[in-house]
């Protein structure tokens, strides 16, 4: 190269350093990075300037490149998580409801078996005349069954262990059902057969109405525990006074009044114990207490029948 020769241009010096870079009409980008439309790749592209935020250098990815989690996917993920949480919550609610419904079905199946046994024993005492006369002539059998009734009742109500331990809870409940059925049949023997079946029919109607009312109403009977206890005390005092008066002289209206009061009080107790099974009131019982639930409803229904029997029937 002579001194008169002009110095090579920038493009010529680039070609001498890197070799030919022409491929068609587009130059190869330096440093081995692929060319992108509109991205600055160095000199040699006159009039092409880098756009803001699109500088492609070594080790720095373009901000226009999609990230690992695009922003439009994030709301979908969060909403999916919320739906999953709602599904878990609703699943828990539905599982709780299914457990409660299974518990209610179990209670009413046990109650149906108890009422079937009681109705059958009452029918025997009402229709079989020798049995009826034998019970009337031997009242000591009634009082002999009372201690069994009291012991089994206290064990089932007061002792959580026997009440929840299978199969002892069902065995105790069966013994209690037989004892109370016998005592109810003995009481029915002193009344006319028509009065007994009339009381049975009224009891069935009352129980169906109270059950549907307790499930549908917004009135919470479980929050009226104090009132029901006070009514129990009033009924107890009224029963003592009635027994004393009737022991000296039989007063029909007093007898019927006591029966009406008892039927009303135990109808309220039936509504109270029915709502304890539902689980969405102020007070409820555990699904493990199916024996206690069946026992409570059974005693209420039997007591309603006995008090109605005092209203519908005349003592022989």
Write the layout of secondary structure elements.
Blueprint: H1 10-18, E1 22-23, E2 26-27, H2 74-127, H3 129-137, H4 140-158, H5 160-164, H6 168-188, H7 193-216, H8 225-248, H9 252-278, H10 290-312
Antiparallel strand pairs: 1-2
Helix pairs in contact: 2-3, 2-6, 2-10, 4-6, 6-10, 7-9, 7-10, 8-9, 9-10
Task: Summarize the structure in short.
It comes from Danio rerio (Zebrafish). Helices cover 68% and strands 1% of the residues.
Describe the structure.
This is Protein lifeguard 3. This protein is mainly α. The chain has ten helices and two strands; from the N terminus they run H-E-E-H-H-H-H-H-H-H-H-H. The protein has a two-stranded antiparallel sheet. The termini are far apart. The model is unreliable at 21-26, 28-33 and 47-94 (pLDDT under 50).
Which features characterize this protein?
mainly alpha; single chain; 316 residues; 10 helices; globular
Strand content: under 5%
Count of separate DSSP helical elements:
10
Q: How would the global form be characterised?
A: globular
What's the number of structural domains?
A: 1
CA radius of gyration: 44 Å
User: H/E series, N to C?
Assistant: HEEHHHHHHHHH
Query: If strands are numbered along the chain, what order do they take across the biggest sheet?
Result: 1-2
Give a quick account of the main beta sheet: strands, pairing sense, barrel closure.
2 strands, antiparallel
Mean pLDDT: 76
Number of strands: 2
Helix residue percentage: 55-70%
Low-confidence stretches: 21-26, 28-33, 47-94
Protein name: Protein lifeguard 3
């Amino acid at each position: 190269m002579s001194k008169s020769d002009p110095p090579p241009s920038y493009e010529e010096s680039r070609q001498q350093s890197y070799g030919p870079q022409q491929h068609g009409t587009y130059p190869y980008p330096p440093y081995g990075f692929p060319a992108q439309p509109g991205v600055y790749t160095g000199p040699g592209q006159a009039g092409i300037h880098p756009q803001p935020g699109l500088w492609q250098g070594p080790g720095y990815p373009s901000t226009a490149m999609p990230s690992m989690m695009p922003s439009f996917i994030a709301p979908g993920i969060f909403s999916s998580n919320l739906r999953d949480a709602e599904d878990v919550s609703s699943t828990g609610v539905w599982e709780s409801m299914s457990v409660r419904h299974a518990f209610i079905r179990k209670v009413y199946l046990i109650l149906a078996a108890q009422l079937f046994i009681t109705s059958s024993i009452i029918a025997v005492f009402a229709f079989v005349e020798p049995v009826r006369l034998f019970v009337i002539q031997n009242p000591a059998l009634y009082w002999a069954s009372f201690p069994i009734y009291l012991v089994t009742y206290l064990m089932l109500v007061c002792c959580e262990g026997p009440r929840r331990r299978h199969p002892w809870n069902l065995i105790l409940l069966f013994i209690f059902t037989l004892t109370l059925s016998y005592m109810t049949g003995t009481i029915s023997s002193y009344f006319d057969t028509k009065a007994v079946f009339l009381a049975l029919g009224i009891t069935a109607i009352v129980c169906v109405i109270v059950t549907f009312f307790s499930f549908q109403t917004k009135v919470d009977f479980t929050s009226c525990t104090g009132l029901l206890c006070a009514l129990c005390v009033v009924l107890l005092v009224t029963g003592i006074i009635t027994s004393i008066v009737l022991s000296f002289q039989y007063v029909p209206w007093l007898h019927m009044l006591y029966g009406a009061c008892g039927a009303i009080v135990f109808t309220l107790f039936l509504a109270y114990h029915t709502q304890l099974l539902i689980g969405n009131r102020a007070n409820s019982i555990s699904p493990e207490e199916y024996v206690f639930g069946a026992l409570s409803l059974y005693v209420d229904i039997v007591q309603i029948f006995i008090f109605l029997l005092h209203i519908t029937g005349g003592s022989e």
